[in-house]
TrEMBL record:
Compartment(s): Cell membrane
Sequence ranges assigned to domain Major facilitator superfamily (MFS) profile in this UniProt record: 6-396
Protein name stated in the entry: Multidrug effflux MFS transporter
Top-level taxon of origin: Bacteria
UniProt entry tagged with the keyword Plastid: no
Family: Belongs to the major facilitator superfamily. Bcr/CmlA family.
Length: 407
């Protein structure tokens, strides 16, 4: 493969991977304008973000079987087409209810891009190059939350929030054209692949019943929900409580993204010296302590804008370190059904996130207390699940060893 061809494939797959994050982050600075335009509150606008998370949760489980049944590109075309239609629907939304529904449909469409891009990396590139390719995709994914809200803030200020969704639709059209003309079909359709519910559900149940999976999937998913609490609450906290502009909010969001992205890169150095189990344990303990200080500071109203930014930054650093380790540990027991486990892990993470984002939105509080409270509860429950779950993993390992010795 030539370097030019390699670069082109990375750019297309990276664009597919980044479509979902762009769709989440780009319209956040427009929350206040959307609320005024649709005659509602920013808390109700946040429900359109929650519906997007719910759509991603459903889509994670939907596209895996379709990609194996019909090949990679037909489901991808269907998803991108759905995304374009829903983006136009968001532009024409004249009520918050319509926007919430359109965002849900938009999320279902964007999932095709995410799931297909991961599958196509495995199809197109040699196994020895997969880690390098995924690292490049993660770099693109990490850059998107720094770019999207900043661009969204300027677009909202200059042209209004509706234009954001036209921009997303145009981006999706360009990606679709790139897929049609430059991305090869990497997997032949398999007519023998069954889409009947029973074998699919049986595969999911087998994964869920594995102690190492449910321990780290639940613990990591709950801890990761702290990120969703931040994303859902940040427009209210920064633009309404601290009265900053949509442009400034975009820059603050980009700055805080550095904490999450940078800590995940630091984690790659930590795993060379420490076990993932040790790193997860330390990161969750730190997250509990920082979240507790954040909550106390919020309740006493002593943090101010700078103090709030620092606290959120530190919590996101903890999540950035916890997330890759819990994901790796959850998927470690699986070889043949790693795809099923991966899709279930993503769906589980997004499901918890959607519940948390809805919960935070319903608080209707003009302060950072709901955000900090959710972060504290999430980190505490995650740590408790980790402690209890490890006992079940140890018991299962000891039982297997005893069975092996008896034979």
């Amino acid at each position: 493969m030539t370097s030019k061809r390699y670069f082109l494939l990375i750019m297309i797959l990276g664009s597919l991977t980044a479509l979902g994050p762009f769709s989440i982050d780009m319209y956040l600075p427009g929350f206040s304008d959307i609320a005024k335009s649709l005659h509602t509150t920013t808390e109700n606008v946040a429900l359109s973000l929650s519906s997007f998370f719910i759509g991603i949760s459903a889509g994670q489980l939907l596209y895996g079987p379709l990609l194996d049944k019909y090949g990679r590109k037909p489901p991808l075309y269907a998803g991108l087409g759905l995304y374009i239609i829903a983006s136009v629907g968001c532009y024409f939304s004249d009520s918050i209810e319509m926007l919430i529904v359109m965002r849900f449909i938009q999320a279902i469409g964007s999932c095709a891009a995410t799931v297909a891009s991961i599958a196509m990396v495995r199809d197109i590139f040699p196994v020895k190059d997969s880690a390098k390719v995924f690292a490049l995709l993660i770099l693109v994914l990490g850059a998107s939350p720094m770019i999207a809200p900043t661009v969204g803030g300027y677009v909202t200020a200059a042209f209004g929030w509706q234009l954001i969704f036209i921009i997303l639709a145009v981006i999706s059209v360009l990606i679709t054209l790139a897929v049609i003309f430059f991305l090869p079909e990497s997997y032949r359709a398999d007519p023998s692949y069954s889409l009947k519910p029973k074998p699919i559900i049986t595969g999911f149940i087998a994964v869920i019943k594995t102690p190492q999976f449910y321990t780290y999937a639940i613990s990591g998913g709950i801890a990761f929900s702290g990120l969703f609490a931040y994303i859902s609450s940040s427009p209210v906290v920064f633009m309404e409580v601290f009265k900053i502009s949509s442009k400034t909010y975009g820059w603050i969001f980009a700055l805080l993204s550095v904490g999450f992205i940078g800590s995940s890169q630091i984690n790659s150095m930590l795993v060379k010296k420490y076990k993932s189990q040790q790193i997860v344990n330390a990161a969750l303990i730190a997250m509990v302590i920082i979240s507790a200080l954040f909550l106390v500071g919020s309740m006493q109203n002593i943090l101010g804008l700078v103090g709030t930014i620092i606290m959120i930054f530190l919590v996101l650093c903890c999540i950035g370190i916890t997330s890759p380790n819990t994901s790796a540990l959850a998927l470690a027991p699986f070889e043949k059904n790693a795809g099923t486990a991966s899709s279930l892990l993503g769906a589980f993470q997004m499901c918890i996130g959607s519940v948390v984002s809805v919960g935070v939105s319903l608080f209707n509080s003009q302060s950072s207390i709901p955000m900090s409270a959710v972060m504290l509860v999430a980190s505490s429950v995650a740590l408790l699940v980790l402690i209890v779950g490890r006992k079940n993993i140890k018991t299962r390992v000891e039982a297997k060893n005893a069975e092996f010795v008896s034979h």
